[in-house]
């Protein structure tokens, strides 16, 4: 199924290697949408990106970690170069993450590395946001002619 889009990796990205409880949709049914918490094998994102994929930069990333995104946000500032990323923030699954997300947004504004394009509330404590890297010249050339 995934081969039409790329390679499927049977693990999750986590802060540390090991096992983490994630909200998953085990039967992939879009009709029932019944998520459950399961222990999932995790590897660190930077290790996956640099050592397995051999990438230093990501053109586009869709980040939807079903509540696990709060521990991932720091990677966006420090360890990974994104040209564009879209992220879903699931505040209802991690109410304590509100401060983490607040700090992330204010750091984005202070660093002026990303332009925050849009925020969409999709209901049930889920927000979708779209960010574009405006500091990296390679990234800018992908989006703007004659840059």
UniProtKB/TrEMBL annotation:
Source species, domain of life: Eukaryota
Species the sequence originates in: Caenorhabditis elegans
Keywords attached to this entry: Methyltransferase, Transferase
Protein's UniProt name: Methyltransferase FkbM domain-containing protein
Lineage: Eukaryota, Metazoa, Ecdysozoa, Nematoda, Chromadorea
Ranges where the Methyltransferase FkbM domain occurs: 6-116
GO BP term (any one): methylation
Membrane-spanning parts: none
InterPro entries: FkbM_mtfrase, SAM-dependent_MTases_sf
Classification via Pfam families: Methyltransf_21
UniProt entry tagged with the keyword Thylakoid: no
PANTHER family documented for this protein: METHYLTRANSFERASE FKBM DOMAIN-CONTAINING PROTEIN, UNCHARACTERIZED DUF13 C.ELEGANS
One MF annotation (Gene Ontology) recorded for this entry: methyltransferase activity
Keyword Transferase in record: yes
């Amino acid at each position: 199924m995934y081969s039409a889009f790329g390679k499927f990796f049977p693990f999750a990205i986590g802060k540390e290697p090991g096992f983490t409880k994630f909200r998953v949709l085990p039967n992939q049914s879009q009709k029932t949408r019944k998520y459950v918490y399961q222990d999932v094998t995790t590897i660190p994102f930077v290790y996956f990106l640099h050592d397995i994929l051999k990438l230093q930069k990501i053109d586009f990333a869709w980040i939807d970690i079903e509540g696990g995104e709060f521990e991932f946000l720091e990677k966006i500032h420090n360890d990974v170069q994104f040209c564009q990323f879209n992220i879903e923030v699931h505040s209802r699954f991690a109410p304590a993450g509100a401060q983490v997300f607040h700090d992330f947004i204010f750091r984005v504004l202070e660093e002026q590395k990303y332009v925050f394009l849009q925020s969409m509330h999709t209901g049930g404590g889920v927000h979708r946001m779209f960010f574009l890297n405006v500091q990296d010249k390679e990234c800018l050339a992908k989006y703007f002619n004659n840059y």
